[in-house]
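Dear colleague,

As promised, here are the two records you asked about, laid out in our usual form so they can be pasted straight into your sheet.

NAME FIELD: protein one
SEQUENCE, THEN STRUCTURE:
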Amino acid sequence: MSELTLTVLRLGLLVVLWLFVLAVVGVLRADLLGTRVTARRTERARPRAARPEQPEQAPRPRRATLVVTEGSLRGTTLALGQAAVLIGRGADCTLVLDDEYASTRHVRITPGPAGDGWVVEDLQSTNGTFLGRDRLTTPAPFEPGTPLRIGKTVLELRR
């Protein structure tokens, strides 16, 4: 082999080695620093007069609060309204859990079909979700006072 070929091979191997080292450093950094939480933008509410008229809808569910009773976020509260609430480790979730047993998108809580309660749905999580003592396999009504366990985190619905 010529001298030029050996030099090119050596430089190529050096570049691949450095790319590997940088990839390892990136993974270690992500593990040590955890998930990056990004700030969410919220739309400002338009004045009431400027809002377009909307057709009559189903009755709104009564206001309720989701409270973290166990886990690293103990004491955290989240007001439930008309919008669905996504819970998991992902940065795009409404409630971001710092729980190694939670999936990126673990559970969705939505207003009930009749507008009088809430429904909890497991999003094919790896470790499962428990509503009371039962493992959640299909969407189920989420009643106040019933514990919802996601890994080491326990949530409770309160009116």
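NAME FIELD: protein two
SEQUENCE, THEN STRUCTURE:
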Amino acid sequence: MFTSFALFSAVFFVASGHMHTTPMMRWCVLGGKEYEKCMDMKNAVDKGAEKETINMTFSCVNGTNAEDCMMKIKAGSADLVTLDGGDINNAGMDHSLVPIVGEDYYNRSGLEGASYKAVAVAKKSNSDITFKKLKGKTSCHTGAGKTAGWNVPIGTLLRMKLMEQDESCNAYVSAGKFFSESCVPNVKNKYSSATNLCTKCPEECSSSTGPYSGYNGAFKCMMDGAGDVAFVKHTTVGDVGADANQYQYLCKDGTRSASWENCYLETVPAHAVMTKSGHTHNAQFKSLLLHLSADYGTSQTNTSDFQLFVSFKYGGSNLLFKDSTQKLVDVADKNTYQLWLGNDYLQDLEELNSCPTHSPISNISYIFSIPPIFSIPPISPTSSTSPTTGFGEINKPHLTVVMVSLLSAVIATVTSQ
């Protein structure tokens, strides 16, 4: 009887779906280079000490682009992906994804190092280029909708009124009219009618994996002479091993500097690993990632073993994580996309979708050339006096001026209320 009960219990256990208790952790990757690195991360998880404390089945899932990965996570066919600020906003707003860990670039306590500077870089020899004189120039961007390469510089140019927002309320149209030519990788997937925004990298109009894509790619674009300015992050010059003496940063006040420390466009939120809100295994995902950061991060200097923040051995850069990352950190109470991005960056994103404003009264005043109400022409002392009004006779042209001026004052008063 005991044997029968045990057999029944085993059958019930399998039928109830509890035989497989190991949670899955499926990472969404972009391209073959990321897939190769992801598989090495899987091997590190399978053989590492983490397997003993956090038992998870790790796998890699191919995605065509960041949006595709967001959709896969929302649909339940993937679990995790690392995104930059612009994509974090879309992931949270459109797909209900949340950040669980962020990249720390300074190895500081808490979340102090989980940010970086968005900068504009130009060749030192190209001395005519300043941030206030970019109209009509050529530009290199990390990618359409990316934080340092698009959202911050274009948002800043619009906010400072250096770039005029188009009547279409579309920043891509505005930028296309502002720059003569550009390289904005993947722009056709964001704005299909883009023309001159990818003439400097035609093979990357609908791709974000070409030689001019990403931070290093945007800098290479400028370095090769395809653009006058590159919009990147503050560590890019050092990351690519360029001679820093040959380049300068463009400051918002129109000056230039050899150092980014006092010459950057904005402090922006770090990249973050995103997953589905309320996922059953989010705590385990977070724990495993923090363990991987400690064991295979910057402290792991054996190049023959897996290194979480090294990409050159796969023939790429910033694969899965930015190569400048020092460690991964818990997002703590910044556990929504709004809290992680912060108000300043969210305002940048709003600026990109703003519409031009007009002043109807100022337009009317300009069209009709209405003079101030206190500029009524004086009455001639030689005029005859009216027996009914006691005022000198006002000729018809003067009367017209008075009436138009009064109308202007009435319109201005009503509009101001």
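A couple of things worth noting about protein two: The CA atoms of residues 117 and 374 lie 53 Å apart. The mean pLDDT is 84.

Best,
R.
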